[in-house]
User: Fold AraC family transcriptional regulator from Pseudomonas putida.
Amino acid sequence: MLHSHLTTLNAVSLILKVFQEEHNDASSLLAGSGIGPADLGHADARITTQQELQVCANAVARREEIGLELGRRMHVSCYGMLGYALLSSATLGDALRLALRFPALLGTVFSLRLIEDGQRVWLSASDYADSPALASFNAEFCLVSLKTICEDLLGQPLPLLAARFAQPAPAYHGLYAETFDCPLGFAARDNAFAFERRWLDTLLPLADPITHKAMSERCRQLNLEFTGRQAWLGRIRQLLLQQLDAAPGLEGLARQMNCSSRTLRRHLQLLGSSYQQILDSLRFERAKQLLAEDQMPIYRIAETLGFSETASFRHAFQRWSGVAPSHFRG
Assistant:
């Protein structure tokens, strides 16, 4: 089962904005994510990475190269408190090392590292463990957004020495030149770009030690908050995954979590979610897996996911994905 952590609505809002600017219908991009238009109005709302990835999958289905454009638009100001902490850092190296301390605040699905290689440094994104279909999108979005952050911090372009990607070269790899003006490699061991080591020591134009100290502390506290919420989310998902065929309900889940239903409901509200939203998300993930395997009849899939009637499952899947289960199986 794919992992799921907490993140902000920043990337989702950006995706909707890009398609709205192109005068395309953006509402269908939320299909299957459990995110509603009302959620977008809450600045402090939290969603899971699986919800975010569902919106990304909907976007990639329309434009497979969208990750490159999104990365160019994901400026340092999109990262809230972390953005302020990075901007007020003394040097680029200080800022990058701080960002790598708080991957949850970056919202990344990769493990990020700075790898020193003589007079150059690689900013590496590895250990991808999410949807294989979104591997190229996530690698492009990650590396381009990291380059955008570096250039926002420096106030000038960051000349790259090389860039590499774990995926094979896509059909649109010619578009990479718009961002990566350097030699490119594909089918590599990780996703990374390299620049001269001296840039790490470059003083940042907006450095401010007092602001930096205050914002770094806020980031530390926010990261603890994210981590605590993720622990609750992980336990909730684990328990529900074990009983999708007979979901316990909010009261039953609370008993399994050794807390009151009121406490569980409060934690779910802090997660920006609800019992039903998480259950639907897990059912949708499992339904897609079972439909892709093309072995189990649809009525059996409905039973496996806890639906008493096949028609109820069909209706729910149509609501989650926008298509009927039979059409999804194709």
